[in-house]
Write a structure and sequence with these properties.
Proton glutamate symport protein, globular, L-cystine uptake protein TcyP, transport, 21 helices, 4-stranded antiparallel beta sheet, L-cystine transmembrane transporter activity, mainly alpha, Na:dicarbo_symporter_sf, 3-stranded antiparallel beta sheet
């Protein structure tokens, strides 16, 4: 009894190492991590290669563990790991809730500790569930077909997530001050103009991106009939879906925070943007009466920015190890073996992502941006988005890449980069919604009776509006599925459709987030090019072309000023 209590209380709940398999897997993983870190100290290689090596090691570890546990199905990961499993009719079944019928009484499978004895007991027996209902008759299994749950994998994931969570928490820690200080500095600086124009262009680019992504993915899924065989009509429960969708006015007023403290503690970025603009604008007005005090405030903000960037560099040093941890646990916590039946949907989703990355690259090329130089730096936020599955967690890296490496002006970076994490997400809104709509149309006889073009236009409009309120955080499948289906009047299909997208959300979210953050970098670059807001030493555009753009903008502003002057004079 004492030993059992020690195992449960100390080893399982506190130490999270209760089996020799857990201990061995954890020691091997941290041994690999230590060797990788030692190698990075001894061999000086570019940061991109450090990240790629970390991803490769994490991938190998994750796949190796999946091979060991046999690529189990979804329910394998949903229990505590203390269950017994049996191979019945080719499928692994969690039999912990069943009883074995013998001559005298029912014997609970969960009470059997010795799995070899369990195999002998259930040969040629009748399984019954908790209600006494016969579940499986004469199930013949071999000793090898009985095994314990993946409790050791669950414990491994707890430890393997250590560096991952330290890194993500550290990045999230500085996200709010990065956004607030960056925007405050831009708005509060005397003589700053054109912020409204920059914001308008950014929003337009982001929303157009969503519309294009939706269109491409929807028609791709439609022509490939990716919903064939899913029979959503037979899975309706008669409900009305969920109530996650919001009206456009409620989305807009939700961006204005009602509580100063809660705005800084929440995950949403847009309320922080609103606060920074309000305080920055107010600082401009107060500067007229108290210039010296406001100069001191700006100096404080400048030093605070330096400190935040220094903290960011501390966490960036462990990013290769964090990426290794992220990819390993991304694989070992998901039921890859359950994805066979919906692999086509996942494949079409990733095709949509790659098409959008190619499309954005093409637009930049046509706009005169040096594509080679752009991708030289854009890979960094893309990789972190892929690893963290969070646009918010990638934001500091996105801003640093745009500002320090691509040499995009602070005025653009401070406005566009934060906007792109919460508004117009090209993948989480555009590609995801296109998939949902095409799967539903090709997987439901009732829905397919609707005119395809009317259905497409409804979905396109709903998706663009819904993309204004979709946050850049992991697991947006629920929000997008609900918002789109309820928005077009097909809320009752939420449960069966989400059953598909919930299953692939983890694997799909990595690619979605990578494309989202790349879309943000794309929008900032395009706005900077249109406004001529690059530093002179940028590699993205030639000095001659940049000077030409600035001259055109200067002439336009002079012409506009003369018009205003003449109008006021008259």
């Amino acid at each position: 009894m004492l030993l059992s209590s020690f195992r449960e209380t100390f080893l399982e709940k506190f130490l999270s190492i209760s089996t020799w398999q857990s201990l061995l897997a954890i020691l091997i993983f941290f041994g690999l991590m230590s060797g990788f870190w030692y190698g990075l100290k001894k061999i000086k290689i570019k940061f991109v290669y450090r990240i790629l090596i970390g991803m490769l090691i994490g991938f190998i570890v994750g796949i190796t563990i999946q091979i060991i546990i046999g690529f189990p199905g979804g329910s394998w990961f949903s229990h505590s790991g203390n269950s017994a499993w049996a191979m019945i009719d080719g499928n692994w079944i969690d039999i912990s809730k069943y009883y074995v019928s013998n001559e005298e009484d029912f014997v609970s499978i969960s009470s059997i500790v010795d799995l070899e004895n369990a195999a002998d007991l259930i040969k040629g027996t009748i399984f019954s569930d908790n209600n006494g209902t016969e579940a499986f008759v004469n199930a013949i299994v071999s000793d090898q077909s009985i095994k314990q749950g993946v409790h050791w994998v669950i414990e491994f994931n707890v430890w393997a997530s250590l560096l991952k969570q330290v890194f993500i928490n550290g990045i999230l820690l500085i996200t709010v001050p990065v956004v607030f200080i960056a925007i405050f500095k831009v708005v509060a600086t005397p003589g700053t103009k054109g912020l409204g124009r920059i914001s308008g262009k950014a929003v337009a680019i982001l929303l157009i991106n969503v519309a294009i992504a939706f269109t491409i993915t929807f028609w791709l899924g439609y022509f490939l009939k990716i919903g064939n065989g899913l029979n959503f009509d037979n899975q309706l429960q008669g409900g009305s879906g969920t109530t996650d969708s919001k009206s456009l006015p409620s989305i807009i007023w939700g961006y204005v925070p009602s509580n100063f403290v809660s705005a800084f503690s929440a995950a949403a970025v847009l309320p922080i943007i609103v606060l920074a603009i309000l305080f920055g604008t107010a600082t401009k007005f107060v500067r007229k009466k108290h210039p010296e005090s406001m100069n001191n405030l700006m100096n404080f903000m400048n030093r605070a920015w330096d400190i935040i960037m220094s903290v960011l560099m501390i966490f960036m040093k462990i990013m290769p190890l964090a990426v290794m941890s992220m990819l390993a646990t991304s694989i070992t916590t998901r039921a890859i073996g359950a994805l066979g039946s919906i692999g086509l949907i996942l494949a079409v989703g990733y095709i949509g992502l790659f098409v959008m990355l190619g499309f954005m690259t093409l637009i930049l090329f046509v706009s005169g941006i040096n594509i080679k130089a752009w991708w030289k730096y854009a890979w960094r936020p893309l990789i972190q988005g892929f690893s963290t599955q969070s646009s918010n967690a990638t934001l500091p890296i996105t801003m640093q890449t745009l500002n320090s490496e691509m040499k995009v002006s602070d005025k653009v970076v401070s406005i566009v980069a934060p906007l792109s994490t919460s508004l117009g997400l090209v993948a989480c809104a555009g590609v995801q919604a296109g998939l949902i709509m095409s799967v539903l149309y090709t997987g439901s006889d009732s829905v397919s009776q609707m005119n395809i073009f009317a259905y497409f236009i409804m979905g396109l409009f709903t998706t663009v509006v819904a993309s204004i309120g979709i946050a850049g955080v992991p697991g947006t499948a629920t929000v997008v599925t609900s918002a789109v289906l309820n928005g077009i009047g097909f809320g009752p299909y939420f449960a069966p459709v989400y059953a598909i997208f919930g299953a692939i959300d983890g694997l799909f979210d990595m690619g979605r987030t990578a494309t989202n953050v790349t879309g943000g970098v794309f929008a900032a670059t395009l706005v900077a090019k249109e406004e001529g807001l690059f530093e002179n030493e940028t590699e993205l555009i030639s000095a001659k072309k940049l000077e030409s753009i600035k001259d055109k903008i200067s002439k336009k502003e002079s012409k506009k000023s003369r018009k205003i002057f003449r109008k006021n004079k008259n």
